[in-house]
Amino acid sequence: MTKPPRKPSKPLLRDDAPVRSRPRRQRDPAQPNLPFDPMPDRIEPCLALLKSKPPKGDDWVYEIKWDGYRLSVHIEPTGIRILTRSGHDWTHRFPAIQQAALWLPVGSAILDGEAVVLDEQGRSDFGLLQQSLGGRGGKKTSSDAIFMAFDLLYFDGHDLRNSELSMRRHLLNDLVPAGDQRDIRLSEEIEADGDQLLASACEHGLEGIIAKRRDAPYRSGRLGDWLKIKCVQSDSFFVVGYEKSTAARGQMRSLLLAARKGDDLVYVGSVGTGFKEKDAWALREMMDSITQKTPAIKYAGRRKNIVWLQPTLIAELEYRAWTDDGKLRHASYKGLREVQDNAAVYELDDIR
């Protein structure tokens, strides 16, 4: 298959008006069968591998890193399905994205992207997204979330996963035009030097950038075709306990955190900042329902008044670095991840 030009002079899907699939009619028995691919019920997402610096070379293209919930939007003959990273159906929670998908000029498609809520400066804000959904475990629908589409995996009867990224983006750019301000928007590729783009992203308070191999197919899992380079490190950790306090918000001084190491959990420090008063009390209520007598980690610290918890809550944190003894430095609480989001808890073998 020949590679399309990066900036096609003529859109693929439109001439004077959007192209829509015609109504079905009976097939002529004399007509040969066309090789359509069955539409996958669900696709495991391609995940970005954490790196400390952007890669070099023309083989890579860049995008802004969005801070939200990874979703896939399925446009099917029977309607729209919006699935989380772990395959839970959240269509009802994103009615604006569902409606926007209905208007796309395509009969069937699977879009890969991120649901985000933007702040006043146009930056994605995970905390605002959580608030719009009613917090962790909340049942609210979000009218503020938009979908930033960055890949097209299936398109009108054709599975695109074996096509290279540049081909998939060529089709996606026509389906979701750059600059469109509706509730499904294009996460635009940026032709730039990686180091300069990262510096600019950090200067503007963004989370970081994503680098993708231009000629790579879509492969599920964390295999290195996509890389993430962060301005401020942000990862997920188990909450394994909290330290009581009569003065602090929610009457808790800090949360005790753990990361994975193989099949074990390892204590990686605590976080005592970033809590809003309303969120702190809601978090305390959730934690008091999952207490246990013994810690889920080996703990040799000197903190007093610790309440140990079952390791079921996953907190998203920002932090600056790691100490020499493997603890988080300058950590700040951002919120709890949803179980359905299938957030990956930090592995201590990851790059630091």
Keywords:
352 residues, alpha+beta, Dna Ligase, domain 1, D-amino Acid Aminotransferase, Chain A, domain 1, OB fold (Dihydrolipoamide Acetyltransferase, E2P), 6-stranded mixed sheet, 5-stranded antiparallel sheet, 17 strands, 31% strand
Give a structural overview:
The longest helix is centred in the middle third of the chain and has 11 residues, at 165-175. The strands form four sheets. Strands 3, 4, 5, 6, 7 and 8 form a six-stranded mixed β-sheet that branches. Strand 15 (321-322) and strand 16 form a beta hairpin. By secondary structure, the protein is of the alpha+beta class. The protein contains five helices and 17 strands. The protein has helices at residues 95-102, 126-132, 165-175, 194-203, 277-287; strands at 49-50, 60-64, 69-76, 79-84, 109-116, 146-155, 158-159, 184-186, 208-213, 226-230, 233-244, 252-261, 264-271, 306-319, 321-322, 328-329, 332-336. The protein has three domains: 47-65 and 188-231, Dna Ligase, domain 1, CATH 3.30.1490.70; 67-186, DNA ligase/mRNA capping enzyme (D-amino Acid Aminotransferase, Chain A, domain 1, 2-Layer Sandwich), CATH 3.30.470; 233-341, Beta Barrel (OB fold (Dihydrolipoamide Acetyltransferase, E2P)), CATH 2.40.50. It is 13% helix and 31% strand. Mean pLDDT is 86; it is low at 1-24. It starts with 48 loop residues before the first strand and ends in a 16-residue tail after the last strand.
